[in-house]
């Protein structure tokens, strides 16, 4: 079971149809390239292949078949959302997830307070609790 089957690289992304992210902060990076499929875009984003930044999301232009790799996502400061019928936005789940799965080793989200509003203990701290 599972032999010979390749894992779909889109599995690591959350898709939002007809949405593009516009960078207001000019220091945020974007790289584009013509690619035939969203799977090819996702694979490059996951591997950061040919990118000078950590890819957190990509937008795929279905009309021009152009992939836009983004160093940011919808939660990043200095970014605004724009509805655009030509684009589908794919954000890495690790960066938009608001919960910890397993031991949290891969958590890259932005939540740093408990449900009751208490500041979370830093991962590198053993105070007030040991891990």
From TrEMBL:
CDD domains on file: PAN_AP_HGF (cd01099)
Organism the protein comes from: Eulacestoma nigropectus (wattled ploughbill)
InterPro entries: Kringle, Kringle-like, Kringle_sf, Pan_app, Serine_protease_kringle
Residue ranges that the Swiss-Prot or TrEMBL entry lists as coiled coil: none
Keywords associated with the record: Disulfide bond, Kringle
Lineage: Eukaryota, Metazoa, Chordata, Craniata, Vertebrata
Residue span(s) of domain Apple: 5-94
GO terms under cellular component: extracellular space
Domain Kringle: 98-131
Organism superkingdom: Eukaryota
The protein's name in its UniProt record: HGF factor
Any one GO molecular-function label of the UniProt entry: signaling receptor binding
